[in-house]
Structure formats: C-alpha cells, structure tokens
Structure prediction request, 229 residues.
Amino acid sequence: MRIYVTSVLVDDQAKALKFYTDKLGFILKHDIPVGEHRWLTVVSKEQPEGTELLLEPGAHPAVQPFKDALVKDGIPATSFQVQDLNAEFARLRELGVVFTLEPMDAGSVRMAVLDDTCGNLIQLVEMKQELPA
Amino acid sequence: MNDEELDLIFKALGDATRRRILDLLQERSERSLFEICASFVAADGKSLSRQTISQHLDMLERAGLITTSWKGRTKTHSLNVAPMQMATNQWLKKYL
Prediction:
C-alpha cells in the first residue's frame, strides 16, 4: 500500500488551482469533473511522479469551523519541504504571497507559514538535517 | 490593584513555563499559539502540547500579563508589562 494523494480543503477549487500553480509553482496532474466539483490534483515539478496534492472542495458543513479553528491558532493545514527556505520566502513574497510567520528556527528544521488564500495556512520547511527514521 | 489581582499576577509568574512564554513575547510580540509552541521546540527541542501552552496563555491573560489581538484571522498574543510594574510598585518594591 502506498500514499498516492494527500489533500487540502479549499474554499474554491478554481482559485486554489491558480494559487497552487501560479504562486507555489506546482503543476496540474488531474482535472476530472465529479458531480458539481472536480478531482483536481497538482504535483511538484521536482517530483512529477510523486504524491499528488488533492485540492479538495471544502463543501461539508464541518469543514469551515475546522479550518477557522486551525487558522485562529496559526496552525498549518499541511507542510511542504523546500531546499532553501530564505530563497522561497523571497520569491513568494515578491509574488504577493502573504506570510503569517516569517522564516524561523524550530528545532531540526527552519520553517515559515503562508496563507493559501483558500482558507488554509501552509507550512514551508527546510530540513537542517535528515529526520531520524 | 486589589489583593485578588495581585494573587493572579504572582500565581501566573509562579511557573517556569509561563515565565518563558513572557520572555518569548518580550523578544517578539503578536505571536500565534502555533508560533509559541514552535519557539519552545526551537529553544530546547522539547515540545509541549498545544493544549498545555493554551492553558498557560489563558492564565497569563487572566492576570493581564498578556493581551490578545487579531492578525487577519489568526489570534496573536503580546506581552503587557503594566500589571507587573503595578504589582512591583504596590507591594514588591518595599523589599527591593
């Protein structure tokens, strides 16, 4: 068994696709109509055959209070790994991306948190050393 | 400042974790719960649960030692030194 997809719950799939491709730099993998929504996934350019990120519609009534509670406490919905956090931070800020937390040390990683404009906070992480298995 | 308020302040200060939270907020204000938890990990690799930190923050807020505000949709915490200064002037100072 393997993990082929993980998801973020987004307020608006079309807006999310724009943000996750135009700003974050992921590429579209699947866009399949399913009822009133889409099975919409993106992948990393660095790993096009890697795990897909599903931009999942947040239509269920439990989703909004859950997302709001995470954002209130500053907690990211998910986390992406980058090679050079300072470079990504500078690149994304130049593109107008809003960071709720600028790059900081957090133990074995450096991290920053940005707003995906679709109701989520997203953590970027640079490993200072490999995590223990 | 009455005795009840003094009690709240000295009780809030009577815990190492809460004193460290105040030190963290002195370094930088307007921090979210997530950021405060991450700062604990950064400082010594030891992570305290969000619930624990959250309870400490509540106690500090009740004593007036921190204030909260909103940065966008995120709640942030900042140091408020006035009650500490008042407690010092009103009671502690005569022994200093």
Chain B touches chain A at residues 32-35, 38-39, 41-42, 45, 47, 50, 54, 71-76 (CB under 8 Å). The two ends of chain B are 19 Å apart (CA to CA). The CA atoms of residues 6 and 91 of chain B lie 9 Å apart. Strands of chain B lie at 66-71, 74-79.
